[in-house]
Amino acid sequence: MNTFAKNGSEHITALIHEAIEKGSRTATVTGNHEIEWAVRLPSDFTLILEDCHLCMADGVYSNMFVNEHHDTELGKTVAGTDRNISILGKGRAILDGGTYNGLSEKNSLKDGLPHISKNNLLLFTNVDGFTVRDISCHNQRWWALNFIYCRNGYLGNLYFQSNDLAIDENGDEYHGLKRDRYTDVVVKNSDGIDLRQGCNHVTIENITGFTEDDTVALTNLSGWIEQRYCVEGLPSDIAFVTIKNVTASAYCSMIRLLNQGELKLHDISIEDIYDTSAECPHLDHGRYCVRVGDAKHLYGDRHSTAEETYNISIKNIFGRGQSVLHLAGAIGNLTIENAKAGDGTPLAEDFRTQL
């Protein structure tokens, strides 16, 4: 069992300040550290995690990393944009949510609790130029990596291992999520990567592991976090995103695209997506390989139009869950090439003309 040094947030922050004072603007963290509060990363800075395991402290409601001007009034303006922030792993580099703190979507902002986004391991808002690569994310308490109004980024060589703990009606714990026993799942909606409103020109590649919900989600809605972190003067579109080489197991969708209520999502390339849930010990099977829109739920005033969701390219995908593809809303210029199914899975659930 790993032993974690206390006061990890203070230690890493001191390393950052020292690097700035010396002019290197690069700091290297080694060893195992407990994180008690969010470490703020400044512009033009590289944080290297070398043979390093960072774990959230028990009972805290906090992100592990945020950008310097996150959740400040300046950070909600173009003038307050943070730029060129990198987190790079070397050797063993783990970001760990640790023991679940009980904060969920159901009790978010209730009874004195903060918003569920405090459970993101990383939450970047209004960042131009970012890189996160060669890192493992374990036991995320909600979405692992969340980006809002961020652009010109690279996310690569990332591994996810969500918490697969469940508790049955008798109070007995077990591991391995069962689709017909979703109420047993302890940590719900633990995505891997989420690009939210205002994210553009991002490459996501070489993603592996297991996520309790979606592995990669591009979701343009107008919820609490979008309204709180909206940047005046920047476009709200999610656009010009490349997703490739995702080999993973997702309880819900490996790739999810969703926009509703006049918000746009366009120019998205999805390629080489492979569902590994047949061999995954953490769940019985996934649901969708690629999901565009949502036939059952309305998250905005209405479903999207072909002028709001368009230029979506999907190529070389394999699924074995409820269906390989799930399509809903109107989609302009959708291209699909080489979609394959295993275990008798239907190729598509197409609700585009049935809404």
Structure, described:
It is built from two helices and 22 strands. The chain has 355 residues and is mainly beta. The strands form three sheets. The chain has a ten-stranded parallel β-sheet. The protein has a ten-stranded parallel β-sheet with strand order 2-4-6-8-12-14-16-18-20-22. The protein starts with 7 loop residues before the first helix and ends in a 5-residue tail after the last strand. The model has no long low-confidence stretch (mean pLDDT 96).
Distinctive features:
355 residues; ten-stranded parallel β-sheet; globular
SSE inventory with pairings:
Elements: H1 8-22, E1 26-35, E2 39-41, E3 45-56, E4 65-67, E5 82-96, E6 122-125, E7 127-138, E8 145-148, E9 151-161, E10 165-167, E11 173-175, E12 193-195, E13 200-211, E14 216-220, H2 224-229, E15 238-250, E16 253-259, E17 265-275, E18 288-292, E19 309-319, E20 323-327, E21 332-341, E22 348-350
Summarize the structure.
With 355 residues, this protein is mostly beta strands.
Radius of gyration: 20 Å
How much of the sequence lies in strands comes to: over 45%
Strand order of the largest sheet: 1-3-5-7-9-13-15-17-19-21
Order of helices and strands: HEEEEEEEEEEEEEEHEEEEEEEE
Uncertain runs are none
Q: Report the structural category.
A: mainly beta
Major sheet description: 10 strands, parallel
Query: Average pLDDT across residues?
Result: 96
Distance between the termini: 52 Å
Number of helices: 2
| Relative helix content | under 10%
Strand tally, please?
Answer: 22
Shape designation: globular
